[in-house]
Amino acid sequence: MADHHIVLVGGGHTHVQVLREFGDRPEPGARLTLVTDRVMTPYSGMLPGHVAGVYSRAEMHIDLEGLAKRCGVALCRGTAVGIDRTRRELLLADGGRLAYDTLSLNLGITPDLSGIAGADRHAIAVKPISGLLDQLDRLFAGEVVPRRILMVGGGPAGVEIALALRTRFQALAAQPWIAIAAGDAVTPSLNPRMQQRVRAALARRDVTLLAPCRIAEIHAEGAVDTTGQHIAADAVIVSTAARAPAWLATTGLRQAADGSVLTADTLASVTDGAIFAVGDCAAIEDDRREKAGVFAVRQGPPLIANLRRRIRGEPLGPYRAQRDYLAILATGDGSAIAGRGRWLAVEGRWVWRWKDWLDRSFMARFAAGSPG
Ligand SMILES: Cc1cc2nc3c(=O)[nH]c(=O)nc-3n(C[C@H](O)[C@H](O)[C@H](O)COP(=O)(O)OP(=O)(O)OC[C@H]3O[C@@H](n4cnc5c(N)ncnc54)[C@H](O)[C@@H]3O)c2cc1C
Predict the structure, then answer these.
(1) Which one of 9, 44, 194, 261 would you pick to mutate in the ligand 1 pocket, going by the greatest count of ligand atoms within 8 A of its CB?
(2) Domain end: 240, 260, 295, which one?
(3) Above 70 in pLDDT, residue 370?
(4) What per-residue confidence (pLDDT) applies to 24?
(5) How many angstroms separate the Cα of 203 from the Cα of each of 186, 188, 207?
(6) For 110-131, how does the pLDDT look when each residue is reduced to its tens digit (9 = 90+)?
(7) Domain range holding 87?
(8) What is the model's pTM?
(9) Which residues contact 354 (CB under 8 A, 6 or more apart)?
């Protein structure tokens, strides 16, 4: 049988499931290689809990090297920087080339700092998560505790991290001023009842909400909003609208406005059927879902099915995305807010315990000792 080489680029939430599944049920005639720029990949659902001090660094990371080994997948440590689609080769930062029959991209996104002057030099970006964790470590370990922290971006990620920072600093017996510059409104993607609970949680936990407030510039002493008002801060964290990796623009693959690879409902690129794209770095044509890790997780089974079909030479099947999803937001004080659709919103310690169980169950599938 022909040797079909599947190259998976990025160890995101979708590809870790591909590894697991092909480890459990190998596909005759296929071999897999995972290309990743890092060996430990973070699980964002547990990031706020880690910042708050609930989870260790190890608990919120998947060991891609161990997982690949257990699943019989080759691991190539490297950074993808381009695709030679004519020769079907992935181009790596070290000058290497990797031939593929089918390529799948699960690269994630990073905050778009280009709209805020000085952000690239003076701000801490929430992604890549490894960079955020390194910078937060320095913040917590510093001899001088920051007195004022500004979060730029009032989406669920910005809110969760701000609340988690409050918990972490309380453990350090420090009480810095923590504020969120939330643009027009906080968590606008959540339903109004959830938004109300989010605002109440921020007030309860002494996190100042600045809205409307758009940051135009970040400098060494803080930030300046679009009205010219100066906001003093020792640390500015940016969790704003994100963009897919810039190098995707060089591939000739059609992209959405945020640089994501445009795909059909089969998750294959609309430009090149040999290339799949999933998670935050992809956008399904005519489907305006927001970016969230839950969608990257849900795309696991349909991507696996279509990779198997591609290897067998069968027609691809469609992925039918659900419109809404269960959003759970940790408030950092042992409680959490959950909601779905236009009106459901609940809150309590039991919601946090539920989220903890869901996140730990997801991670257990990829831990050493799990079947695979
Ligand atoms: C603080 C925070 C909290 C969040 N909480 C939630 C939540 O509770 N629920 C939720 O649904 N979403 C949440 N999100 C959103 C979530 O993080 C993303 O939607 C999710 O991580 C996207 O997953 P992904 O698989 O597309 O990519 P990622 O998880 O970002 O994985 C991409 C991988 O590709 C690798 N990579 C990137 N470029 C290259 C390259 N050129 N070569 C090789 N490897 C590469 C990266 O190192 C990484 O391992 C949160 C985000 C943040 C910042």
Answers:
(1) 44
(2) 240
(3) no
(4) 94
(5) 13, 17, 6
(6) 888 888 999 999 999 998 898 9
(7) 4-37+78-109+244-322
(8) 0.93
(9) 328, 336, 338
